[in-house]
Amino acid sequence: MTFYAHSLENQPQEKWETMQQHEDLVAEYCARFLKRIDPSLEAWGELLGKWHDLGKYSERFQNYIAAANHAGYEGDSDGHRAEVRGSVDHSTAAAKLAVRKFGDARGRLLSYSFAGHHAGLPDWDDGKSQSGLKQRLHKEIADWQSNAPSSLVDFEFPGMPQFKKPKNRSHAAFRVAFWIRIVFSALVDADFLATESFMSPGKSAQRPGQSESFIQMRELLEAKLARLTVDADATEVNRIRTLIGQQCKEKATLPNGLFSLCVPTGGGKTLASLRFALTHAIENNLDRVIVAVPFTSIIEQNADVYRKLFASLDSELMLEHHSNLDPEKDTTTSRLQSENWDASLVVTTNVQLFESLFASKTSRCRKLHRIANSVIILDEAQTLPIELLQSTMMALQELVDSYGCTVVLCSATQPALKKSAEFKIGLEDITPIIDDPQQLHQSLVRTRVEVAGKIGNEELAENIRREDQVLCIVNTRAEAAELFERLNDSESDSSFHLSTRMCASHRTRQLDNIRERLKNGESCRVVSTQLIEAGVDVDFPVVYRASCGLDSLAQAAGRCNREGKLDCGRVVLFEGENLPPPGFLRQSADSGKELIDEFADDLLSPQAIESYFRLHYWKKSDAWDYHRVLAAIGNRPSDMQFNFREIAQRYRFIKDDTETLLVGWDEKGDRLIEELAKSHPFLHRNTLRRLQRYSVQVRQYELGLLKAAGAIELVNDHWVLSQSHLYDDKLGLQLSRADGVLPVEDCII
Fold first, then answer.
1. Tens of pLDDT along 556-593?
2. Tally of helices (H runs) and strands (E runs) in the chain
3. What does the pLDDT average to over 221-235?
4. Which CATH superfamily is domain 214-322+338-437 in?
5. Is it true that 4-207 and 214-322+338-437 share their CATH fold?
6. Angle in degrees, CA 721, 297, 581, rounded to 5
7. Which of 20, 181, 271, 558 is in the most buried spot, having the most CB atoms within 10 Å?
8. Which architecture does CATH list for 4-207?
9. CA dist., res. 179 & res. 257, Å (int)
């Protein structure tokens, strides 16, 4: 009897994929992935690939996929949906074999990956659903050993990786759990790619190979920097930018490790950090550069800069990955579409990067093995959430210590994350890229901060109207929309609103208009949420900033007199009618407020910023593991009793559930949505990538409101705004208009 791993819908069995074909290809991929991390790990990959689908040798599974094929069960050619439902279990077999053959401790290192390679890494003990590894190891399953080749089960246990000595038992447990997740990632990615090569060979052939284009990318970057130097005005700001870029190039030749790049806003950090990363990757033979930022607004600008810079190269060299458009439903098709970061340059968010490092889902974990041997640039590193700091610091240190990564902590202020007597969980052995950051701060002072106290909305609107060019940054989208409407200038070309209620393509168009008006000396009044603060290249003579932390104030000041063309720009820190929202924004604003009297002369001095971090980060040890992520990992590594799903649930940057809503803001957006509607699910991955720029995040209750108003529809499993009057050309998505009543002009056919 021939045993099959995958069937093809309505195709005879001779065209199906045999077990040997599948397990050989998965073993080849997985061994290659793990060997790249450490040559000694090649045997792990071969064992994982050969064993992961042993349960498919059961007659029960073979009968299932034959029946599914004839019944036309779309998306279940490999029994995945049946596995998730619990009706046909083929992944427990290898998990049980590993423990029986290698013993509890060593066997479980493998068993978690085997048991979870379809449904995700399990908890150790889940008595309620019986899905925990403990329960799975005692589960009765269909006989497979009678049919599997005897040579397949004769593997010896592969050698253990050589890690640095852990600091304590808790650290040892963290390290082992992290290792299991990396191994799991390699298996999942190998399984997905092997399945894709059979199920969709055309799509599989389109995947880019391992790129070796860093030299070409560096050549283009160096040419760009040379042009900027020649074309730039002979100002002190431009002289310092050149100096920063040169120091980045020089320090890039150092070995892998932790680095800090402390450059005041306006110092050219985006290109300087990329210069370091590309040169460092070449010098140290690293595989990719990952740029992680706290806000999607920074991604939009950085990715646009990189895209234009590398336009002459293969478009697949760069991946912009930040939305949750990647489907995670239980079908073969959707699993193949999930992203695996197989690109030379990945631009992503902190949410995507860090939540993946603690994830349990296959779609989130798939990319992890590709993070090894990478340069990771953390832009605005000081924005990491306090309540997850300890586990986050441990993950960063582990990537450097055990997985060949270099991490660059980029900040406009001094490093907030360095280990010290006050901050014992901080990162160790950080090498500064800039030789004298304090002198750099003094050289780049271009603004003066005024503390204005409380200002009501009407007075604030009047103050903005009096300025010819002004930026006002507030803390919430509601405040931004209200203030913009108070300007009574919604029909004018000189007033602009920016918030995440606007899709990225819309915001980019607005920013282009803003920059053009600023460049031409025309009137330009902008009301924005904090999305404009970091990484957005605009230059205003006056900036108003609502109550915030000093790190945010420094970012706001970076939008003021950015090019140093004025003697001194004016930054006004004020208290609005409403307090910042509870949580991170409220806490950071309170910490900043405590320091106003002490540092009134220079709220942005290195001394003020250090005092701010002492209040905001270093003295809040009770909050460093507020969600008890480390408690879920435990401190008994030899027991191998890890609760991976609980860890993932506890380690969440964003707690409120959101959904992605696609909006056809312009003709291109409408065309992409039409393309999405017409394409087969196997083929619309590239369309989804392009639609990231036409997406808005909405909360679950907001989605319900839109559903009730009949304002959205499902297109190929993605929500699309169907009532165009709900998307305003100035303000973006306007939920207040979702009352179910259509404008007269929309009712005319």
1. 998 999 888 888 999 999 999 988 988 778 888 999 99
2. 29, 21
3. 87
4. P-loop containing nucleotide triphosphate hydrolases (3.40.50.300)
5. no
6. 85
7. 558
8. Orthogonal Bundle (1.10)
9. 19
